Amino acid sequence: DSGVTQTPKHLITATGQRVTLRCSPRSGDLSVYWYQQSLDQGLQFLIQYYNGEERAKGNILERFSAQQFPDLHSELNLSSLELGDSALYFCASTLQGLAGETQYFGPGTRLLVL
Amino acid sequence: AQKVTQAQTEISVVEKEDVTLDCVYETRDTTYYLFWYKQPPSGELVFLIRRNSFDEQNEISGRYSWNFQKSTSSFNFTITASQVVDSAVYFCALSEARAAGNKLTFGGGTRVLVKP
Questions:
Q1: What pLDDT, in 10s, does the model give residues B2-15?
Q2: Quick one: which of A8, A30, A104, B82 is 20 to 30 A from A90 by CA?
Q3: B interface mutation test: which of A45, A49, A50, A51 has the most B CBs within 10 A?
Q4: Which residues of chain A lie closer than 8 angstroms to B105, CB-CB?
Q5: Rounded CA separation B79/B20 (Å)
Q6: Do residues B84 and B12 touch, judged by C-beta distance below 8 A?
Q7: What residue ranges of chain A have pLDDT lower than 70?
Q8: CA nearest B93 in A: which residue?
Q9: Nearest to B104 by CA among A86, A104, A21, A51
Q10: C-alpha–C-alpha distance, residues B96 and B102, integer Å
Q11: Dist. CA A56–CA A58, nearest whole Å
């Protein structure tokens, strides 16, 4: 158990809908990361937050947004969902969000868009 | 731009055989970090090892060992005397010091199937 929690574990929804994925980092960690794992794209970095502020951005679609709250949990919002958004979404956390810190991953949220 | 290549998509071995997973990386940064993660059938990503670019010492942890060679930009992973529980997908990943934040660039993964 990495100490990172993600809810829900599974999510089934329809095209055009909006969903929110939630992540709680390990105790004491200030930085959270979001990754998408899909069959065609592999594991892709989406976005990183440190203490509520965005620190780095990857190839995150405009339909996707994220934020980190004062209690350090983070939410990833996916809107206008398409079939291709079906994937496993991981959250990870580290202490300070600095280069080279080991990222510990949560169990993931499996999203299926029908 | 950073890139990680895991040329082997799938390796199948019989229990007790050794298996080596290749990882080749590309970066323009002189300071960088390499990682291996394991993804068992249950789906979570489990951290195995971290190595920085200034530490070329090979490492052994139980049946696992890693060979880091800067000259060939490789960070290979060997499982000795494989067991069925080693069946998983293994990912190599790279983080650059100069990049904003701490994003990981992952290779495509190597699926290891250990047959009893």
A1: 999 999 999 999 99
A2: B82
A3: A45
A4: 45
A5: 6
A6: no
A7: none
A8: A43
A9: A104
A10: 7
A11: 7
